[in-house]
Design goal:
The structure holds two protein chains of two kinds. Chain A is built from eight helices and no strands. By secondary structure, chain A is mostly helical. Helix content of chain B is 35%, strand content 22%. Classes of the chains: A mainly alpha, B alpha/beta.
C-alpha cells in the first residue's frame, strides 16, 4: 500500500461508512416517542387521580415521581425493563423510570461485590453523571432566574 | 524444528497435532445452528455459581477437564496450559485453573486469544518443550457486558453493528504424537489500527487486522485462498466480514468462495436477535473446538486457515478518546 497512514485511515473510514448500517433513526424516534409518551401519560393519569383525591399540586407531583420510580425499579427487578429499553431506546431511558432503572440495574449487577464497595460505590456509575450535571444545570438556571426571573 | 517463512509466518516441520477438543456453551448458543456440535450445553448461564465470573471459570475448567478426558489422558500429562479471557487480569482463567496444578501461561489477545494460545502451544510442542499442551479460552456474555458495557438489566438499545458475546469455552490439546489435524503454519498477528473508534462496531475495528494476517500468510507462503478448504475468522460479524473480503480483495486475493466467520455461524442473528453476530474469546474457540474440528475429523474440511480476531480496547482507552487497535492470529490446520 502506497497511501500514507492518515490517508489509509480516511479511506477505511469511508469504507466502514458504506458497509456498516446506521441505526434506523426514524423508526427509533417513533418508538421512543410512543413509549416515552406512554410513560408520561401514565404519570399524568396518576397526578390527575391524586388531584381528584384532593392532594395539592406539589404533593401529587411528588407521589407520582415516587410511584414511577417504584415501577421502574420493579420492572428492572422483574427482568423486563431491559427489554423495554432495547425496544424504546431513549423513550424509556429519559423518563424518571429510566433513571430508576439505571440505579437498580447497577445495584443488582454489583451486589456480588459487596454492599459497600459493590452496591454502595457502583450503584451510581450510570446515574452519577446525570446527578452531577443535573445539579449544575439547576444552579445555572437558578442564577439566571434570580437575576432575570422578575 | 519449525522454520521462519517470509516476514511473519511460522512453518511447523514436526507438525503438532490437535488430539482432543471440547466445547461447552451457554443456553443461547445451544439454541443456535451449531448446537449439535457442542459437547455440553448449559441450562443456565450461572451453572450453579453465584456470579458471572465464577460461572465463566467453571465453564473453562470443565472444558479443560473434558478435553483431557476425551483424549484418555491424565491432568498430569498436560505440561503447560495457555489460556486467557476477557475479564480484568484474566480472573476467568486463573481462577479456573487454580485447582488443577498445571503450569500456566496467561495470554491476552482479546477475542483472538484462542489463536494466540494455540500458536504458543504448538510452538512449545514443536520445540520439544512439551509432549502435550492445552490451549483454551472462554468468555461469558453477562461478565463481558458488566465489564465493557452496562449492567445486564440496564435498558439500553444496541446498534445493528453490535455483537453478542458468546458464553462458552473451547479447549484443545496439542500433542507431539497421536492422531488429529496437524498444525502446519502459524501467523502471529500484528496490532493493526486504521482509526476505527466505535466500540459498538468491532467488526470494523478488527477487519483490517484479519486482512493483514491473511494477506501476510498468502504473501509469505505463496499460497492462494483456493489452496485452502476453509478460511474462518473469529468474530468479525456480518459487516466486518464484508470489510475483510473487500480489504483482502484490494491486495489481490479472493475470499468469496470459501470463507466463513465464526460469529455469523454460531447464532441465527435474525431469530436470536444477535444483530451483527457472535463475539468474544469463546466465539471462535467453541466454533473451532466444536464445529470446525468435528468437520475436520469427518474429512469435510481438510485444510483450514483459522483466524480469530481481537479488539484491544479497554473502557479506559475508549473514554480517553483512543482509537481501537485490532489483532488477528492465524493458524493453519491440515488433515
Amino acid at each position: 500500500m502506497k497511501s500514507s497512514g492518515s490517508e489509509k485511515k480516511k479511506e477505511y473510514d469511508k469504507m466502514v461508512q458504506n458497509t456498516s448500517p446506521k441505526p434506523k433513526l426514524l423508526i427509533n424516534c417513533v418508538k421512543a416517542f410512543v413509549v416515552g409518551g406512554a410513560i408520561c401519560v401514565l404519570g399524568q393519569i396518576i397526578i390527575n387521580v391524586l388531584k381528584y383525591w384532593d392532594f395539592n399540586k406539589d404533593d401529587a407531583a411528588m407521589i407520582t415521581s415516587m410511584f414511577l420510580i417504584f415501577l421502574g425499579s420493579l420492572f428492572t427487578g422483574l427482568d423486563l425493563y431491559d427489554s423495554l429499553g432495547e425496544f424504546a431506546g431513549a423513550g424509556s431511558i429519559i423518563p424518571i423510570t429510566g433513571f430508576a432503572n439505571s440505579i437498580v440495574a447497577s445495584a443488582i449487577e454489583f451486589k456480588k461485590e459487596g454492599y459497600v464497595l459493590g452496591v454502595g460505590a457502583k450503584m451510581f456509575t450510570i446515574a452519577g453523571p446525570v446527578i452531577v450535571y443535573g445539579t449544575i444545570s439547576s444552579v445555572v438556571v437558578g442564577i439566571i432566574y434570580f437575576f432575570f426571573g422578575g | 524444528m519449525g522454520t521462519q517463512v517470509g516476514t511473519q509466518t511460522i512453518k511447523f516441520d514436526n507438525m503438532p497435532k490437535i488430539v482432543s477438543h471440547a466445547a461447552i456453551v451457554g443456553p443461547k448458543e445451544g439454541e443456535g445452528p451449531l448446537a449439535s456440535y457442542f459437547d455440553q450445553i448449559l441450562e443456565d448461564v450461572l451453572w450453579g455459581e453465584d456470579s458471572w465470573e465464577k460461572a465463566e471459570s467453571k465453564i473453562l475448567k470443565e472444558a479443560v477437564l473434558m478435553s483431557i478426558k476425551k483424549a484418555s489422558l491424565n491432568l498430569s500429562d498436560i505440561r503447560y496450559i495457555f489460556s486467557g479471557d476477557l475479564l480484568s487480569q484474566l480472573i476467568g482463567t486463573s481462577f479456573a485453573l487454580r485447582p488443577l496444578g498445571v503450569p500456566f501461561f496467561g495470554v491476552y489477545g482479546a477475542c483472538s486469544t484462542m489463536g494466540e494460545s494455540l500458536i504458543l502451544a504448538a510452538m512449545t510442542v514443536e520445540a520439544g518443550f512439551a509432549d502435550y499442551c492445552l490451549a483454551t479460552t472462554s468468555s461469558h456474555f453477562c461478565g463481558a457486558e458488566k465489564q465493557f458495557r452496562f449492567p445486564l438489566e440496564y435498558g439500553s438499545q444496541r446498534p445493528p453493528t453490535s455483537t453478542w458475546t458468546v458464553t462458552g469455552s473451547g479447549a484443545v490439546i496439542v500433542s507431539k504424537i497421536g492422531t488429529g489435524p496437524k498444525i502446519t503454519y502459524a501467523i502471529p498477528g500484528k496490532i493493526v489500527d486504521l482509526g476505527a473508534m466505535d466500540p459498538m462496531d468491532m467488526g470494523a475495528v478488527m477487519a483490517p487486522a484479519a486482512a493483514d494476517t491473511i494477506v501476510s500468510f498468502f504473501k509469505d507462503t505463496g499460497k492462494q485462498p483456493s489452496d485452502l478448504d476453509l478460511i474462518a475468522t473469529g468474530d468479525l460479524g456480518k459487516y466486518g466480514s464484508k470489510l475483510l473480503i473487500e480489504l483482502v480483495k484490494k491486495e489481490g486475493y479472493d475470499l468469496t468462495s470459501n470463507y466463513i466467520d465464526c460469529g455469523m455461524e454460531i447464532f441465527d442473528s435474525e431469530s436470536q436477535n444477535t444483530l451483527a453476530g457472535g463475539s468474544g474469546c469463546g466465539c471462535s474457540a467453541v466454533t473451532l473446538a466444536g464445529y470446525i474440528l468435528e468437520k475436520m475429523e469427518d474429512k469435510e474440511i481438510n485444510k483450514l486457515l483459522f483466524v480469530p480476531t481481537g479488539a484491544m480496547l479497554s473502557t479506559v482507552s475508549s473514554n480517553e478518546g483512543e482509537s481501537i487497535p485490532g489483532i488477528a492470529h492465524g493458524v493453519v490446520l491440515e488433515n
